[in-house]
Structures are given as structure tokens and as C-alpha cells.
Amino acid sequence: MNSKLKESIENSRRITEAELTRYIPCLEAECPTLAAAEEYMLSSGGKRVRPFLTLEFCRALGGDEKKALAFACAIEMVHTYSLIHDDLPCMDDSDMRRGRPSCHKKFDEATAVLAGDGLLTDAFGVCASNTSVPAEGIAEAVCVLSAFAGSTGMVGGQVMDLAPAEPDADGYMKLCALKTGGLISAAALLGCIAAGADEKAKNAASCYAMNIGLAFQITDDLLDAEKGDEDEGKTTILSFMSKEAARDYAARLTDAAKQALVDIPDPEVLSEFADYLLSRVV
Amino acid sequence: MNSKLKESIENSRRITEAELTRYIPCLEAECPTLAAAEEYMLSSGGKRVRPFLTLEFCRALGGDEKKALAFACAIEMVHTYSLIHDDLPCMDDSDMRRGRPSCHKKFDEATAVLAGDGLLTDAFGVCASNTSVPAEGIAEAVCVLSAFAGSTGMVGGQVMDLAPAEPDADGYMKLCALKTGGLISAAALLGCIAAGADEKAKNAASCYAMNIGLAFQITDDLLDAEKGDEDEGKTTILSFMSKEAARDYAARLTDAAKQALVDIPDPEVLSEFADYLLSRVV
Description:
By secondary structure, chain A is an all-alpha fold. Helix content of chain A is 71%, strand content 1%.
């Protein structure tokens, strides 16, 4: 990984995690069980890709990353809630998450449902409390986060993922666009809003994010297949094409993402990041 | 019920339900199962107490009720999500809700979790899309809704309700303040924000809402006891005091609520509403 990219990812992770730990103590006095479950999941590591994108888009557009920090935390809280609910017995029924017991295994199912509900609800408060952004930007950020995470976004994608109907490649890509691409797009757009960017930059961010989101999903499917991690009967991109064709597809999406960056003043790190995601499989 | 109060409740219900039905079609094309589950629960009736409070506080402060309509819908969506998740097998495990099968019985558990997640997420978008309110008001409304519905509000109250520790009367009232009072307070405050009210009016609204919220819970406990609807082992106000003492307590809370209305320009309907809630048990 390019050193400037590595530094940006590490820096984004550090400041996001530091800010997220400030959120927990407010809960502890009121509701220790809930605080413990939320902290367990928020502190479980992960790549913090979404906060990185929020902070890096703000920087790439000439904004101070601090302006985007509350938005980055809100995005990570929404992502964390989605992992908790996805792991529930009635959903993917996963006992493990990032090498540790999943939330409902470590605590119990009711606590897991409520920790997810709490993180999702609180995320909007964290988003709307961003005092570095004018009120118009706050209202826009809340609308973006709601639209990409909600019923016609990530939640809708999860419903499609659970539906028994066998999709075609286009249907699978649409599902991925909603389920994975949605929150990645929201992350990029929130960075633009924090930087006070114009519509042209926001369109570029949307296009970049949707393309790397899909490339990310395809490369994940390829990596799972290489590790022999395939879940039998689970739809992946390899249900519809060969590994070689999937790699080519991911490369084309990566190119499209990088081309979209022409409207971003300082796109180097974001361009490197798109290449890095692809490099995991080529 | 006083005819002016009745008219206001009916009018609030009518315009809220009409506005809520506009929300569903956007979902149907994208995700019909999710749309069906959300519509099933949104259209399941109920008293629509929270939207009434949002709209009536706006009116009582001299605002046009239309300014508060998006907020009223957002509050009802959050209330509806909370009912769906409360009914889940791992929570209260209720097969029925308002005389119909609960969401996870009508559909399935995964759809119920996701319909709740979708309504909660979408509610913040509906709230933030209120174009009748200046952006500062939107940001404030999102913070209020998040705070009263989130981990230190309604979700926290639900966690306390599921915890096995036997509370005392004060602990039970604190739980009710979070679980029932929180969203009622948010409803009243959102009406104030829509009307552009000052801090004095907001304090009055908070005080009124918290007191009627607690009185509402106590009178509900009394009504359940009269109907023989008590859930064995479930904590209610009657776990701590006699029926007579509970009635007196509810009457004192109602008085406190009405006294708070001295700072509201046109408090008649709100005052009648507090009396009406109490009248159910005296």
C-alpha cells in the first residue's frame, strides 16, 4: 500500500476511534448493559473504510478533516448497527464477527436488537450535532444518511438479500449497490457536505463511491472463494461469471471510479485507495 | 370528550394518516415485501397520540399545523418501529398488536426486524425533509428525536424494562419516563420547533409531556388491572402502591402537566387532553 494512503487510513482510524470512545461514557451511567454491548461492537476493529472515505473526501476537497469527524462517527455507528442486526439468528445467524463472538452471542438477542437500535438512533444525533457545518449541511447530511441507509437503501438491500428469489447478475449488482454501495456512497457524500462542496463534486463522489463499493463486493466474493469461505447456496458474483471475468469487471469498475475523480481537487489518496481495493485480487 | 379536543384529535389523525400513506408508494417499486410490512404496521390504527401532540403544540403556539406535519409523521414512524421491535420473540414475544397479528407473525422475524430498522432510519429523513422549518430547526428536531428515542431515551428504557432486577417505584417511574415519556416529550418539542417557539415554551412543553407521559402509563396500568389484563410477574405501578394511591398519583401528575401550560398561548385543547387521559380511570 502506498505510504500516503496508509498514513491517511491510519490517521482516519485513529481520530474516528478516539471520537467514538467519547460517545460511550454518556451511556454508561444510564444504561450499563446497553453501553457495554454498544462499546463491544464499536471497539471491535474493522477496517473503518467508511469513516476514512468521509474524512478523505473532506480533505480532498480542501476541507479540514475535523469538520467531517462527527459525520464519520455517525457513518461508523450506522455500519456497526447493520452488522449487529445482520448477525441475528433470524438474519444471517452468525456466531462470530471479526474473530469474536457476535453481539447476540456475547450478550443476548434482545440486547443485540436494542444495541443496534440505539446505535442507529444515536447516529442521527451525532450527525446533527456537527457544529462545524452550517445547519443547511446538517439537514442535507441527515437526508443523505437516511436515504442510503433506509428502506430504499441498505435496509432494502438486506431484504432483497434474504429473499429466496434467485437473481441474475444485474439483480445481484443492484442488491450490492443498495447493501454495500449505499453506505459507502453516504460516507463519501457526507465528506463533501462537511467540506461545503458543490453539486459537481458530490456527483463525482457518488460515482466514485458506487463504483468502488461494487468493486469491493466483487473482490470480497473473489477472496472468499480463494479462502474456500463460500457459503453453499449463497449468491456471489461467481454465481454468474468466471473468476477471470469477475476480476475484469472489478478492474473496469475501479477505472470508472478513478475517472470520476477528475472533478476532485486533490484525488491522489482516493485514487490509490481504489487501486488498493482491486490489488487484493490481482 | 370535549368536542374541541375530539375535533383536534380527529383532524390530527386524518392529516397524519393521509401524509403517511404518501410515504409508502416510494418503497413499493424498490422493495415490495418491506413496503407491505411497513404499511401493515403504519396503517394499523392506534390512537396517534404522538402526532396529535406535535400538531397541537404547533397550533397552541400560533403555528400552522402544516409546518409540523413532517415531524408528526416522523414521530409516528419511530413509535411504529418501536412497537414492531418490542413485539419480537426475543423481546416481549407478542403475537398480537392492536387486534391483528404482530409484524413478525404476519410476515416473518427477519422482515419485522428490517421493517423496524427501515421505519426508524426513514423517520429521520422525513424529519429532515421538513421544508416548512428553517435548517436550524431541522438540526434541532433531529437531535431531539435522536436523544429521546435513542440509547439514553426510549431504547435505554426498553433495556431497563427487560432487565431482571426488581426496581422500586422511583426506578419504575424512571423506566416509564424513558420508555413512554421520551417519545411523548419529543412529540411535544417537535411541535414547538415547528412553531419557532422560544425556550420558555419548550420547557413548558417538556414538563407537560413528561407529566402526561407518566400519568398515561399509570392509567394504562390501572386499566389493564381492571380488565384483568395483568401479565403475571410484570412490574406495574400497582407493584408499589394501591389502586387508590395510583389514581391520586396520576391526578397529581395531570395537575402538574396543566400548570406547565401557563407558558403556552392557547392551551385549552392540551389541558383538556390531560384531563381526558386521567378521566379514563376516575
